[in-house]
Structure formats: structure tokens, C-alpha cells
Automatic annotation (TrEMBL):
It holds the Pfam family CCG. It comes from the Bacteria. GO terms for molecular function: oxidoreductase activity. InterPro entries: Cys_rich_dom (IPR004017). It comes from Allotamlana fucoidanivorans. This is (Fe-S)-binding protein. One of its GO terms (cellular component) is cytosol. Residues 8-88, 133-226 form the Cysteine-rich domain.
Length: 250
């Protein structure tokens, strides 16, 4: 099967759909420009992660099963959210492991991982002449293994860095803490607000101290958390999902 003939189901997380539609559009345009046969299942809803994170996994079974029904016909499921994809791959074990469920779990990919590992591309011909700071979300980094962790010795690798380093004019800035948590954690930011805010401020200040102009990442939930802090504190930092950068001037 040729890569360009792969039938991909585009998964747009509910919060992206409601609050950041430009990220969903950028993801769709990017995949289409890379020659992928993209389909958007109209019946898709939440993946069930918020319920699971709050300890209500049993109550999320219907949502998870609906996700499987919507995406079981595709060769791959691709979404611009490491945490949501992680939930599909690692927490759909609450369902009966039918062939459809196993197929969906095995073929779910975060956007950057799909581009690098499945399509085999790193240089997308994008151009973005700005100083960029990369936030590596916990679910993507430590859950999906999208990069090496600073606390683990070994060879350094990062699918997100591989893509950003090939964007014309982009300067990927070095941070003091390369992969520290932003403190969002879904409902953690609600139940442990003070800790969450302090962690988020630390991440934002690290980017500002590192002369970053644009803060990016592959998980807009983390970006949403930090962007809220940036806006409230009127700090000079722009926030963009990595799909928007990779889609620029392709």
C-alpha cells in the first residue's frame, strides 16, 4: 500500500473543536498537503479522557465504544493531541478487546509521530522565521515516547524537534528545563489550582528567559493552560500549536 493511499480518520479532540478550530484546520490541511487521504467522521465526540482522569472510567465506556465505532474503518487514526491519543492507546483496555478495539488502539497516532514514523517525513517545506520554544507534554513525551526524557541517560531524540529543525527560518531555542510539566493535567488544574498555576508560570517564565517569541507544542491542552497565564499576566509570548507552524507556507 502506498503511503499516499492510506485512509486516515482525523480525530479532533472536543476542546480543540470548540476552542481552537484553527488547530483542527491546520492539521487537516497539513495532512492533505502531504498526500494523505483524510476523512473526518461526523459522529465523533470526546475520547473519554476527562472522565478517566477523574476516576470515572466505568462511566466512560459508552464514549470509548462510540470512538471505536467512528474510527474502526480507517488505516490510521491521527489527532493533534498527545494526551487524547495516549488515552485511546492505553486506557481503552476498559473495553472488551474485540478486533475493532485492538485495531483502533494500535493504529492511533499523534500528528508528529504519524508524519515522522509512518510517512517518513521530517522536512515539510514549511517556513516560520521566529524564535520558538518547544513544550514537550508529559503524555506525549513519557507516555507515547515521542522523545527522550532528560532524567533518562541515553541517545537524545524528539519527533517534534526533528520537524521543527527543518522549518526554514525557525530558531528552536534551548530551555533551562527541557521537559518539565506545565501543571495542567486536566482536572488536576481544577482540584490543585495553586500548584498547577505555579508550575505553569515556571514553564512560561523559562520560555521568556530563553528569548522565545512563540511557544509551541503538540498538545493544545498544555498550551491552553499556559496561554491563559500568559494572557492574564500580559506577557510578551505568542502560543501556537505545532500543526500551525508546520502548515505555514507549505
Amino acid at each position: 500500500m502506498k503511503k499516499k493511499n492510506l485512509k486516515v480518520g482525523l480525530f479532533i479532540p472536543c476542546y480543540v473543536n470548540q476552542l481552537y478550530p484553527q488547530v483542527g484546520i491546520a492539521t487537516l490541511e497539513l495532512l492533505e498537503k502531504l498526500g494523505v487521504d483524510v476523512h473526518y467522521p461526523q459522529g465523533q465526540t470526546c475520547c473519554g479522557q476527562p472522565l478517566g482522569n477523574s476516576g470515572y472510567e466505568e462511566d466512560s465506556k459508552g464514549i470509548c465504544q462510540l470512538f471505536v465505532e467512528n474510527f474502526k474503518a480507517y488505516d490510521y487514526i491521527v489527532g493533534p493531541s498527545g494526551s487524547c491519543i495516549y488515552h485511546v492507546k492505553h486506557h481503552f483496555d476498559i473495553l472488551e478487546q474485540t478486533e475493532d478495539v485492538k485495531r483502533v488502539r494500535d493504529n492511533a497516532y499523534e500528528l508528529c509521530e504519524f508524519i515522522v514514523k509512518v510517512l517518513g517525513k521530517k522536512d515539510l517545506g514549511a517556513s516560520f522565521p521566529h524564535k520558538v520554544g518547544l513544550h514537550k507534554s508529559c503524555h506525549g513525551l513519557r507516555g507515547l515516547k515521542l522523545g527522550s526524557c532528560s532524567e533518562v541517560k541515553g541517545e537524545h531524540y524528539s519527533t517534534e524537534e526533528d520537524l521543527l529543525n527543518n522549518v526554514k527560518g525557525l530558531q528552536l531555542m534551548s530551555l533551562n528545563r527541557q521537559d518539565e510539566c506545565c501543571g495542567f493535567g486536566g482536572t488536576f488544574s481544577v482540584f490543585e489550582e495553586t500548584i498547577s498555576v505555579k508550575m505553569g508560570k515556571d514553564r512560561v517564565n523559562d520560555h521568556i528567559a530563553s528569548d522565545v517569541e512563540v511557544l509551541t507544542g503538540a498538545d493544545h491542552s498544555c498550551l491552553m493552560h499556559m496561554e491563559g497565564l500568559i494572557n492574564r499576566n500580559k506577557q510578551p509570548l505568542r502560543v501556537m500549536h505545532i500543526a500551525e507552524i508546520l502548515n505555514s507556507t507549505l
